[in-house]
């Protein structure tokens, strides 16, 4: 069988070679449509065990740092450094037609490099050179695929009707519901105005807004975790893992949907009346 190289498989190869995490923040609609640019859900944002734990502990610090990194990436030059939690990353922006199309983050050492005192070690110069070379390859790969996607659009472009926008919305929510996604983020990727995207989603979803679709997906995940992981995580931790930063708000939304508080739901689901 002929091997097929796409962006996701290339990133996995570099993860194994570098013993590091390789993630991509997508900012171009081609990533939503091109099979060559397809990624797994854990390849879009930092998803190592250390980063997941840090996000739970640090609240909005991680998200603020990510927003700042995106602003720097818009300048088009690669950069590197440690986040507030001590994780070192090399960031490689990809600029296409004068606008940021993606930002690769390589680092977060996910393998043998363990954490000490809550932070990860900064790589040596040889490892940094390897990371920079991998980043350049990924940048060139994406630029090539973006060019091919652009050239194929006149005759093959999928019609952007309401169902198309709903499909992209559902895919976007599926990979980012545990973070803090917004309609404006999806609009930026699809390069449409939020004022056009929001009504299109509502028409295709039977009147539900982006926020309502997001909340429904978060609650679905919360229900699953409450049934299966309530002995491992607290109610607040489960809420944060599903994207609810505030435990009180999580309980309010959950009660509104299920008719009972999360703790009462757990007792009923597990048969524990204590």
Could you give a quick summary of the protein structure above?
This protein is α+β, with helices and mostly antiparallel strands and about 270 residues long. The chain is built from twelve helices and four strands; from the N terminus they run αβαααβββαααααααα.
DSSP helix fraction: 55-70%
Which CATH C-level class of the largest domain is it? Alpha Beta
Second CATH tier, the architecture of the largest domain: 2-Layer Sandwich
N- to C-terminal distance: 57 Å
Total E-strand runs: 4
Rg, alpha carbons: 20 Å
Number of domains: 2
Largest sheet: 4 strands, antiparallel
Q: Sketch the topology as an H/E string, one letter per element.
A: HEHHHEEEHHHHHHHH
Strand neighbour order, sheet with most strands? 1-4-3-2
Structural class: alpha+beta
Strand percentage lies at 5-15%
- CATH topology description of the largest domain: Beta-Lactamase
Global outline: globular
Protein architecture, described:
The protein has twelve helices and four strands, in the order H-E-H-H-H-E-E-E-H-H-H-H-H-H-H-H. By secondary structure, it is an alpha+beta fold. The protein folds into two domains: 7-157, Beta-Lactamase, CATH 3.30.450; 215-270, Arc Repressor Mutant, subunit A (Orthogonal Bundle), CATH 1.10.10. It has a four-stranded antiparallel sheet with strand order 1-4-3-2, with helices on both faces. Helix 1 (7-18) runs antiparallel to helix 5 and helix 6 runs parallel beside helix 9 (210-228). The longest helix is centred in the middle third of the chain and has 32 residues, at 125-156. Mean pLDDT is 85; it is low at 111-118.
């Amino acid at each position: 069988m002929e091997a097929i190289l796409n962006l996701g498989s290339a990133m996995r190869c570099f993860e194994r070679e570098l013993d590091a995490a390789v993630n991509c923040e997508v900012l171009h609609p081609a990533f939503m449509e091109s099979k060559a640019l397809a990624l797994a859900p854990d390849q879009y944002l930092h998803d190592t065990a250390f980063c997941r734990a840090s996000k739970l502990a640090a609240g909005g610090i991680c998200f603020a740092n990510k927003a700042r990194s995106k602003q720097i990436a818009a300048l088009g030059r690669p950069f590197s450094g440690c986040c507030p939690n001590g994780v070192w990353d090399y960031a490689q922006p990809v600029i296409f037609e004068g606008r940021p199309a993606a930002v690769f983050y390589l680092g977060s050492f996910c393998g043998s490099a363990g954490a000490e005192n809550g932070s990860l070690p900064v790589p040596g110069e040889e490892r940094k050179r390897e990371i920079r070379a991998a980043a350049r390859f990924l940048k060139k790969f994406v630029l090539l695929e973006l060019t091919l996607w652009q050239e194929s659009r006149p005759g093959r472009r999928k019609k952007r009707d309401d169902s198309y926008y709903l499909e992209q919305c559902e895919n976007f929510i599926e990979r980012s519901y545990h973070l803090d996604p917004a309609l404006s983020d999806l609009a930026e990727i699809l390069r449409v105005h939020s004022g056009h995207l929001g009504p299109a989603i509502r028409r295709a979803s039977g009147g539900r807004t982006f926020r309502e679709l997001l909340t429904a997906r978060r609650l679905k995940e919360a229900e699953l975790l409450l049934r299966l992981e309530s002995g491992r995580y607290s109610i607040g931790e489960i809420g944060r893992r599903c994207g609810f930063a505030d435990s009180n708000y999580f309980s309010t939304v959950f009660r509104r949907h299920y008719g009972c508080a999360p703790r009462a739901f757990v007792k009923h689901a597990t048969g524990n009346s204590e």
